[in-house]
Amino acid sequence: MADDPKNPLNRRQFLQRTFAFSAASMLAGCGSGINYATQGKVDAVTGGTLHFIALGDYGQDGTPTQQTQVAFAMAAYVKKWNLSPSALLMLGDSFYGSLPGGAGSTRWQTQFEAMYPDDTFNCPALAIPGNHDYEVLPVSKYEAEQQYAAETQGTRWTMPAQSYRVSFPDVNPIVTFLCLDSNMPNEPAQPLPTGHFYTMDDASRLAQIQWLENELAQGTTAPFTIVLGHHPLFSNGEHGDNQTLIRDWGPLFQQYKVPLYLAGHDHDMQHLEISGYYTSFAMSGGGGQFLYPLPGKRHGGYSQETYGFTHLQITTEHIIVRHIDPNGKLLHKFTKLLDGTVQM
């Protein structure tokens, strides 16, 4: 049959049609899903600069209704403002639940390739592992993600190592991303269930600290260096602050004046300015998995239990961070200037 999905020539088209039909059905039934009490506004995006779309905690298990809604909002947002993202920033927890077949799982097509299609997001997807990516269900999802990046021809999924560095553009870069593995052993803020979870060992933790310090000390010609990790250092969310990251990474962020750390893990959207820190801390954990309640603010700033994604607009003078909800409305916005000043 011409539409046989087993035919490799038709498989991509079949998956996209099937995904679009399923997503449209889900979106038509939004009333039975989530009630978005949007208090934001449409925020016009102007300026010919670099653009990045970030999201975390998106790999919804089962029927990915909320993940689909956020993905559609991302695509609509990019098209509305005629953006050409330089990269997707995938902040971890890419697959909740099992990943049967590992790098050969059909979930790669339905929940990555077709979910964030390359006709809209024609750019690399810089991926880092979250704690759920460290599950073994039934194989190591982290190893499967690295294998998929290495062996899948034409994929945008990018995970070349535990820690890696990417700059944009290649010539005369404006921003450098340092992509880290934040899955720390024996971290009280992320107690590990028995059984299927694991984390890096202590030798790997120490090696990564040395790598991070070397990269920051080496510097870059780019005006801005942004660090990506799944777990936040500071959070108003359910998991709270991560004392291991505060101890290991916090002094380096301060010493080398890292302007922005972007994370997920808590299923909400946040922006915290911590007294004594040069770094701004932004969390984008509303990519699709069920939301977490905010138990009470440990820190000031913006925190909201909502789905959404984050848009980074970067020039040689500033970073604009926008949290956007599934209706394309602005939840929160701040600007980090080259001298470290924050404007809201």
TrEMBL record:
Which regions span the lipid bilayer? none
Aminoacyl-tRNA synthetase: present as a keyword of the record?
no
**PROSITE patterns, per database record:** PROKAR_LIPOPROTEIN (PS51257), TAT (PS51318)
Where's the Calcineurin-like phosphoesterase domain? 83-268
Entry-linked InterPro entries: Calcineurin-like_PHP (IPR004843), Metallo-depent_PP-like (IPR029052), Metallophosphoesterase_PAP (IPR051558), TAT_signal (IPR006311)
Lineage, top-rank taxon, reads Bacteria
Q: Which UniProt keywords apply?
A: Hydrolase, Signal
Asked if Hydrolase is a keyword of the record, the answer is yes
* A Pfam family this chain is assigned to: Metallophos
Identification of the protein by name = Metallophosphoesterase
Source species: Granulicella cerasi
